[in-house]
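P.,

For your records, the input lines for the assembly:
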Amino acid sequence: MTYHQLVIIGGGPAGLAAAVSAREAGIEDILILERDERLGGILNQCIHNGFGLHTFKEELTGPEYAERYIKKVIELGIPYKLKSIVADISAKREILYVNAEEGAVTVKAGAIILAMGCRERPRGALGLPGYRPAGIFTAGTAQRLMNIEGQLVGKKVFILGSGDIGLIMARRMTLEGAEVKCVAELMPYSGGLNRNIVQCLNDFNIPLKLSHTVTEIHGKQRVTCITISEVDKNRRPIPGTEEYYECDTLLLSCGLLPENELSKAAGVALDKVTGGPVVDDKLQTSVPGVFACGNVLHVHDLVDYVSEEAERAGKQAADFISGKNGGGKYVPLIGENGVRYTVPQKIDPENMSDSVTVRFRVADVYRDRYISVYYGDERVKHTKKRICAPGEMEQIVIKKDSFDLAVPEFIRICVED
Amino acid sequence: MTDNFNICIIGAGAVGCAIAQQLSKYELNVCVIDKEEDVCSGTTKANSAIVHAGFDAVPGTLKAKMNVRGAELIRQLSKTLDFQYKQNGSLVLCFDENDMPKLNELYERGIKNGVSELSIISGDEARKLEPALSDKVVAALLAKSAGIVCPFGMTFAFAENAAANGVQFRFLTEVSDIKADGNGYVISTNKGDIKAKYVVNAAGVYSDRLHNAVLDDKIKIIPRRGEYVLLDKDTGDLVSHTVFQLPTKYGKGVLVTPTVHGNLLVGPSADDIDDREDTQTTAAGTVSVKERALMSVPDIPYNKTITGFSGVRAHLDSGDFIIGETKDGFFDAAGVESPGLTAAPAIGEYLALMIVKKCGAKKKDNYISTRKNIPHVAELAPDERTKLIKQNPKYGNIICRCENISEGEIVDAIHRVPGAVSLDGIKRRVRQGMGRCQAGFCTPAAIAILARELKIDEKDVAKNRPGSEQIKESL
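Structure tokens returned:
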């Protein structure tokens, strides 16, 4: 069995940034396993701009953003295998991957970084009633067909869900000559970035109907029409509010799910809220030497944050390989009262870096509220936010020296008046 | 153009293909026609995928006979024709002491029908077998001979074996009329006339139309829709047996069962509908099925649902199948509803023998009695998998990441006879797109492979029948 110091599963933005940072931290023997035929992951199909404002202080398209990291990987001579899908990972850090050239190969890793990304919630998981004809796509599938394969999936489009990919596709399909009738969103607020609502819907006069959902899909062969209804505050359709939209296509942008089947196989404990691994401040999962970053860990809003997180994972994996293990006492981080989750979920104050960024999402749209951090019962931070929304990730920074005097039993992060 | 056959089977579902497979052992010129683009496109594609033990049907009926014999044949044929079948046993749950007579009646019926390994067990014994069962279960009928089967896999196995032995398949061929012409029948279709000495009506929810075109004694199929909910594979071990409910005052029970692929299946509802093609799911139906299943297994994790679907069964109010030569040279397999999937091979055997007896056909000397399924490469040991990939690198190119299906398997599905010509045809043969992302990631690749292998434009690749193309315009 071949051995590598570090195996990175996934060659998208997370995997690439993790590889670069691990190499810069001195890890020579790295292997990236990528299932697609090129590096870059989903960025390759995101041909719109808006990437890199934080990382590079300029606006790049998805492929351009990916290219910067791919170049670095190539310059640094980091080996990668394309069209190589990982079929299994064990808790002993043995990885089984499959490709057409080598067959099924098992490699042993000193450390693993999980960077497999996420998938879209499909129609079946949403339980949308009606027929199951052609013409129903998740927004990302339609995006790939359009931007990579050059195929337009529909001419008259209805979009359910205001996730960012759905918003981006509303604009994209409009630019390609399709008529986007409307975007409906189950929740009373959008799940996407505000800038996308402005630039992708408002600028093209595409209506956004909040608190609406699809209640019937019509058409036996191809979608012919959909019925939408307004929903009450329990998200149940209100009879009598039905509206009909003639369309040939229904796009779904109703949430992303971190793809952790391999993590589960390795025995990695998952967080019920994020769907991703439970990690400590080093982004290490419950399995020693297995790290996670990017959308496999939790769904991000901006790729810039994915890169930053992945760089940390790469650095921490390098430390692990060099024998710098933690082993201190963990302090749990608890998100509550409007804070849905935190990543990481626990911190080791004794062995942490000088500062750790904690990311989270809020449960509702809040205006003029405070994000508070408690060490035990003591409030140590109380920061006013003009607006927070579920579609945008929030973060706080916890400094190592804040534990100089005392280490709390737990840390709470919450939304307060 | 008129084509001549000894026998024309109308309907390429489980029943039609089973009849074709049985007839293909004989020196006969047989064709199977179907209005859809592929086999397995009607009731066969959407049902409980259960091999019933045979205690449900009233003793002495065709349903009872065909069920018990069919279950036995499926066990045998799953080996020779290589399709997925598992004898997992079933439980019928009783929730009320007052209903015990009904449970006992099922037991008695089973004994009369010749079902082996039947027993009535206590609620505690049932929970010992299935810890996820409700505390409210007071007793259960355990049928160890019951099983689960891949309805697609079984039907493709029958069809491929029949085709290997010379049976012709014609798709997108819709019957408009059947007339006796003195020396057999003339079947009028959208693709021209077909002449056959004998006709077999295996047209599922349309079997009354064919029957009524030929016979004066009219029948009426009532399309009965059943909705199902399918859960992710990580829930498939919640129960190991197929768990039925005794019918209660709240209605006919729903089942909770693992599938041969490891998913968890919940359903069906039962709604009589007008439109035979009405395979919609409904909000009310889904909710009702889900709630009723919780009576058996209270902790079904519905947040792991990956899809919902519905199928239409061919119900006859008379209550039994109509199987046999109902007019000279016209053979019915009509009203085949539950336990139709289990019964299918028995119906095939029964009707084939009847037809062979009538026409005096001889057995073939060169009959091919076995068939191998497309390899599922992900299930092979790594060294075997590598060996196969070295022979054909396409087996190493994984297209469907959820179900781990390779390009090689998809290409095989397309080139089998009869082969996949649509995305659904690939899906049913090799499970590409059947996993938790429901074809989100692999649809573009599947479209490209289908177009390449069939030498058609990607725009013309359809989900199933013409009109269900996925791409509107190439840019």
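Two observations worth noting. Chain B has twelve helices and 23 strands. Chain B has three domains: 2-44+152-220+318-359, 86-147+222-315, 377-460.

Regards
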